[in-house]
Amino acid sequence: MAKRKEDVAVSSRRSVRELAILNEVARALNTSVDLGTALAVALERVGALFSLETGWVWLLNEASGEPYLAAARNLPPALADNPALMEGHCWCLDSYRSGQLTDAANINVITCSRLRNLAEGTAGLRCHASVPLYVRDEKLGMLNLVSADWRELEDGDLRLLHTIGDMLSIAVARARLYARSIKLGAAEERNRLAREIHDTLGQGLTAVLLELEVVDALLDAGEQERGQRGVRRAMALARENLDETRRSVLDLRAAPLEGRSLAEALVELVARFRREGPSEVDLDLVGASRPLPPRVEAGLFRIAQEVLNNARRHAAATRVRMVLTCLPEKISLCVEDDGCGFSPEAVDGDRFGLVGLNERARLLGGTMELQSDVDTGTRINVVVPLEEEYDR
Length: 392
Fold this sequence. Notes:
Elements lengths: L1 H28 L5 H15 L4 E7 L6 E7 L3 H4 L10 H7 L10 E4 L15 E9 L2 E10 L7 H66 L3 H29 L9 H15 L3 E7 L7 H20 L5 E8 L3 E8 L16 H10 L3 E6 L5 E8 L7
Parallel strand pairs: 6-7
Antiparallel strand pairs: 1-2, 1-5, 3-4, 4-5, 7-8, 8-10, 9-10
């Protein structure tokens, strides 16, 4: 009887602990509709509750199916300092995509293939538990929880991790539905602007044309004074329509990628610069499968265009290297050229459109770092944060 009571007490304590963990994770996932922020907070909570320092979340890109690092917590230096090692496929992702990881029974502790061959900078970490993320039969990604000394997982821990995986999957699906609704809203707004342009600019230009036709008739009839008044009215109408045109164009300028991802647009941009010469342009993409907010993609693409134009027109560069690095918390665009360079302190701040580049970076919530000197080339690095601040 005493043994039975003890077992009941242990089971009750376990149930309370599991409920507390699930409640913590649920609260974390409800902190933000931004997917990166929600995953980062949830990953921190899960790691803390399981007494694990390190973990990360892979998601599969909806369009390409390629994996990207969506969130990470306390990566060991060997991985944090070399983002390229967190690119592409590995043993656990290959197992997941082949259908070997599907439910709680398949949650497994394995030696991480990314850490296995590293001698230094791993903080003693070697193994991780892999938790598959699904919505029905759709593969979303994987949660990896990393430890230096994983023990064999008990049935209760397996069920708990599987439930946490289900909660993460629901959060991912919810965030993606929200993103689709934003895109749908943007498409509806573009249609609204198209109708507005037709209704306002079309009518305005018609009014200008009619006024000019009246002026033409008045001048033919020798009515010089009345004709001049008509010209002034036509000029006033033209100015009004020019202002309206500028406003509408500014509203529409946020979609320069024409349905492409930033990585795809940069590949095409670099290919065009190579064809047009004379500069050789190299492009490196790290973590580029990660989906980005449309405004960040548009802003960084405009910055890349401007910097490449500067390297060709003003720096007379023969070689340019562009590196786009996407991490869970930030994205950086670094462009270096071997051109003539200049001394930033000795020139007007607007040279080469530096004010415009700074402004674009600032509007994205990011920063721009400029390094240059005469005859040493120029390096511009723009860093844009991807996650909002959250309470820890």
